TrEMBL record:
It comes from the Bacteria. This is Plasmid transfer protein. Residues 194-205 have a biased composition (Low complexity). Residues 171-212 are annotated as: Disordered. The chain crosses the membrane at residues 41-65. It comes from uncultured Citrobacter sp. Residues 177-193 have a biased composition (Polar residues).
Length: 288
């Protein structure tokens, strides 16, 4: 190989045969959020970049080694020519060899600086990869905690909805019972009061008329209705609502010692009975 045949294009190939892998993201499922695997994408990109850099560096070093070997052969041939007396051709060959040697030294320096740059970029990439991994792990933990909190809130909401349904059914039953009671009382008030006359004859023949007194006593009616008994934290509460009201916002929880509309709660029994005191007398109310 002569000196004139050495061209710069032979030192570094233009298009190294490096195949790049394509990552085809999976299609997201319907109505479901699939998290992007950032770790895998970053890892594949970094490895591809590193492989391309290393292959280019190795190819450059191999070509330069071949060029240096050719230079050694040429130097030996020049030595032989010098000994044979070809001085004119020797000076031109030496000049060309010096130029090519300087060119190769510059190329080696550029390759070395390129390798150092690749190493620095790889170190930076590893640091960013570590930060990204930590961020992904943190986001995963936060997402798991939020999902757990959402599940707990959903369970609480379902429990509250079931309790509200029970309370609404009780209130509807109480309203119906109260309307029936009001109808019965109105019918009883409309009935005429009959008085029986008792005739008795005395020794003088006089007739004594005595009106028959009613022995019925009006039962004391509470101004509220006992709708249920609940146990919370080991303590029992009586659930009451003012008579004639059917809204849940009017309900109250009473514990022993609490009062409502002049009635004071004394005790609560597991059988569904609550004992109240009013005007010094005690009255038992059943859950309705």
């Amino acid at each position: 190989m002569s000196v004139s045949q050495v061209v710069p294009e032979e030192v570094i190939p233009e298009n190294p045969d490096v195949t790049s892998s394509k990552v085809v993201p999976a299609e997201p499922e319907a109505r479901r959020l699939v998290p992007i695997n950032l770790k895998k994408i970053v890892r594949i990109g970094g490895l591809g970049f590193l492989i391309v850099s290393l292959v280019g560096s190795v190819a450059t070093i191999v070509i330069m080694a071949q060029q240096i070997s050719d230079l050694s052969i040429r130097v030996n041939s020049l030595d032989a020519a010098f000994r044979s007396g070809q001085m004119s051709q020797l000076s031109g060959s030496v000049t060309s060899l010096e130029a090519q040697s300087r060119k190769h030294e510059k190329q080696l320096e550029s390759v070395s600086s390129g390798l150092e740059s690749v190493q620095n970029q790889l170190a930076d990439f590893q640091g960013e990869h570590s930060k990204l991994t930590g961020s992904i792990n943190k986001l995963s933990s936060e997402a798991l905690a939020r999902r757990t909190a959402i599940d707990e809130h959903s369970e609480r909401i379902d429990d509250i909805n079931s309790r509200l349904s029970q309370v609404e059914s009780r209130v509807a039953g109480l309203s119906k019972a109260e309307s029936n009671t009001s109808q019965k009382e109105s019918k009883q008030n409309q009935q005429p009061v009959t008085k029986s006359k008792t005739s008795s004859k005395s020794g003088t023949g006089q007739i004594v008329k005595k009106p028959e007194r009613s022995v019925r006593r009006a039962a004391v009616e509470a101004p509220f209705v006992l709708t249920g008994i609940e146990r919370r934290g080991g303590q029992m509460f009586a659930v009451v609502i003012p008579r004639g009201n059917s809204q849940i916002s009017d309900m109250r929880l009473l514990s022993p010692g609490d009062g409502m509309l002049g009635w004071t709660l004394r005790s609560i029994q597991d059988s569904g009975t609550a004992v109240f005191s009013v005007n010094g007398a005690q009255h038992s109310l059943q859950v309705q």
